[in-house]
Amino acid sequence: MQAGTAADAPRLRVLAFGTGAPVVCLHAASWFAAHPAPLCALLPTRRVYCVDMPGHGLSDAVDYSNRDVRAFQTELFAALLTGLGLTHVPVVGNTLGGMTALWLALDAADLVSQVVILGIPATAHTGARPSLLLSLLSVPGLNRLLLALPATATSSRLSLRTAFGADAIDRVPSELFTIHSLRRRVHENPELSCPSQSSFLCCAISESGPVP
What we know:
The protein is of the alpha/beta class. About 35% of the residues lie in helices and about 15% in strands.
């Protein structure tokens, strides 16, 4: 659905499951709306809205260059929730989705009743340094090349090893890495993610500087 009334407002894909009180799920960078599916199965009395973040899945790409990322992201998702007729709704977020959920709770408090963070929200604390891969994804030109590389379940497993942790990675179902790799096959349709992901990373990472 279109997130906002402006003619150029991006369209965000929303998957809805179940019936009952609503809850919204926002996924991590490089993931998509199908990832929270196991969570939906555990919430049979809830109407769960799973959103493809901008530039992910079937949502429109967004160029974050020269934008106030927090203000833009908050306005975008506030418009989405309003368009869905949702107010005072719990929002579940993971990394990028967690950061967006926190911004919504702070800047559009009337729309969010609770925030549930899975793992660590995508924040940049003082002194924090991004990983080498994230730093490379913030380099114009190189980021498009990296995002266009063929994706496999093995490469997804390697890229997610730090996120899950060395002790937990072996307990993750192999199907999850297959799903993740399918999402990352942006070379088949670069417009789906390259502009959004790379420009968002440029804005989010540039202040931290490159990895030494």
